[in-house]
Amino acid sequence: MANTKKRSDDDSLLLFMHIPKTGGTSLTQVLLHQFPKLVYYFEVADNQTLLLEKLREADAFCGHYPFGLHSFIDRPYRYMTMLRDPVEQIISYFYFKYKNPDYPESYNIGITLDYFVNDDNFDLEYVNLQTRFVSGELCVTQPDLELAKANLRHHFDFVGITERYAESQFLLSRQMGWKLQPCSRLNITPNRLLQIECATETIDRIKAKNAADVELYRYALELLDQKIANLSPAQAKALRKFIKTAAK
Predict the structure, then answer these.
(1) Which residues lie below 8 Å from residue 189, measured CB to CB, with a gap of 6+?
(2) Which residues sit opposite 79 in a β-bridge?
(3) What GO cellular component entries does it have (predicted)?
(4) Rounded to whole angstroms, how far apart are CA atoms 93 and 95?
(5) What are the residue ranges of helices labelled H in the chain?
(6) Could you give the CA distance from residue 22 to residue 189 in angstroms, rounded to a whole number?
(7) Distance (Å, rounded) from C-alpha 178 to C-alpha 162?
(8) Model's pTM, two decimal places?
(9) How far apart are the C-alpha atoms of 47 and 169, rounded to whole Å?
(10) CA pseudo-torsion sign 93, 99, 103, 106
(11) Which 3 state secondary structure label does DSSP give 64?
């Protein structure tokens, strides 16, 4: 895996690629306690001069940007991201954007989830969004899945799973040498339907349109399970204990 030196031993830049509605806000709060020179991408994205300056100075870069930001820097880097069950991610995204009165510019009381996933005009917002971020092909809805998988293998030091947040946090803290402590989940979408409350046809449509994301998520789960399988008996015991603590 590329650029895997410890943070304390080099000048590597942590690139946290926050894919929308995958639990990234919670993880960013963890990173804030570890990286004093953390920069939010949205603060500099529209100013290329400032962006390049912060890429040289920051110790961590967090935000909604696709794979590829490392091409603008000439220092060691380490990517990390979180992936989520695509059906859950898309339902959460829909309710966060279109059913959230705190965002009046997109709030739409009349639109339904079924209409959203069946109207192709919305495809660029959500279809295979996770694969698009990981592959770096943000502007297409049918990105290169194999490229995304290769990027996860060769460029990402850490890939967490939203549905297995405690396990992900345990592995990340262990990998980075951080003190392990439970972290509250933030920015959770309120008043959204559960997957089991949605029409079967709607769920099937989401899966069909997001086949690349479904496969990338499955692949990321395999990577996570492999890391857990490689834990020592003592580490596995500590993980089980942490999962119980985090669930309280």
Answers:
(1) 21, 92, 95, 96, 100
(2) 15, 156
(3) membrane
(4) 6
(5) 24-32, 48-57, 86-98, 113-118, 123-126, 129-135, 145-155, 165-176, 200-209, 211-229, 233-247
(6) 11
(7) 20
(8) 0.91
(9) 33
(10) positive
(11) coil
In one-letter notation, the amino acid at residue 29 is: Q
Kindly report, residue by residue over 76-101, the tens digit of the pLDDT.
Answer: 999 999 999 999 999 999 999 999 88
CB neighbours of residue 38 within 10 Å: 17
What was the pLDDT predicted at 183?
67
Asked if 29 and 100 count as a contact pair (C-beta separation under 8 A), the reply is no
CATH number for the region 7-247 comes to 3.40.50.300
Q: In terms of residues, how long is the chain?
A: 248
Query: Which pLDDT score, from 0 to 100, does residue 2 have?
Result: 43
DSSP assignment, residue 192?
P
Which amino acid appears at position 155 of this protein?
A: H
- Token pair listed for 74: 């000439």
Domain ranges of the chain: 7-247
One-letter amino acid at 38 equals L
Mean pLDDT by 10 residues, the chain (248 residues): 42 94 88 93 94 94 96 94 97 93 86 96 97 98 98 96 94 91 67 90 98 98 97 96 85
122-138 burial, b at 16+ Cβ within 10 Å, e below that, comes to eeeebbbbbbbbbbbbe
Residue found under tokens 């690139």 = 15
